[in-house]
Amino acid sequence: MFRTALKARHCIVPASGFFEWTGEKGARQPHLFTAADGSPLLAFAGLWDRWKAPLTGEWLLSRDHRVGASAWMEPYHDRMPVLLEAKDFDGWLGGTLDTYALKRAPEEALREWRVSPGLNRAVLATMSR
User: Fold this and answer.
1) For residue 16, what are the contacts with CB-CB under 8 A and spacing of at least 6?
2) How far apart are CA 46 and CA 21, in angstroms?
3) Is 20 helix (H, G, I), strand (E, B) or coil?
4) How many angstroms separate the CA atoms of 103 and 88, rounded?
5) Full DSSP string of 43-98
6) Closest by Cα among 66, 63, 67 to 13
7) Between 49 and 125, whose confidence is greater?
8) pLDDT of 42 above 80
């Protein structure tokens, strides 16, 4: 799905953090990952593509770009987003930054916070509206 996007459709996804869940279904523990230095914004390397939903015919926008998890991230998920440094923004957006230069965020760049499992209920309630 992202073969064309990898060649020509790069984007930067700004975020204050991202979530991963651990544990068995029904007893999932959410974990929030933010910048370890306290900065309010992370920049993830993204790929975007447009596609038509087969059931509705609606055009949708997708984005993703993840790599295999570092040893530190593996207990939470087997993949993780690619964290960009400001010096790499132009190269990533312009397609001159080789995808092999993209690396996992080092452990010291992220901080993990255990979040109340009630978050799951709030997210599900929002999604059902």
Assistant:
1) 34, 40, 41, 42
2) 21
3) strand
4) 11
5) EEEEEEEEEE-TTT--EEEEE--EEEPPTTTTTT-SEEEBBPPGGGHHHHHHT-S-
6) 63
7) 49
8) yes
Residues 73 and 103 sit within 8 Å (Cβ to Cβ): no
* Closest C-alpha to 62, from 50, 53, 74, 70: 50
pLDDT of residue 128: 46
Separation between Cα atoms, residue 48 and residue 77, nearest integer Å? 22
Site of tokens 């939470």: 76
Are the CB atoms for 61 and 50 separated by under 8 Å?
Answer: yes
- Cβ(34)–Cβ(42) under 8 Å? yes
Ramachandran angles phi, psi of 54, nearest 5°: -60, -35
- Within 10 angstroms of residue 111's Cβ, the number of other Cβ atoms is 14
Q: What percent of the chain has pLDDT over 70?
A: 81
Give the pLDDT confidence of 100-124 residue by residue, as tens digits.
777 777 888 899 999 988 776 655 4
Q: How far apart are CA 42 and CA 63, in angstroms?
A: 16
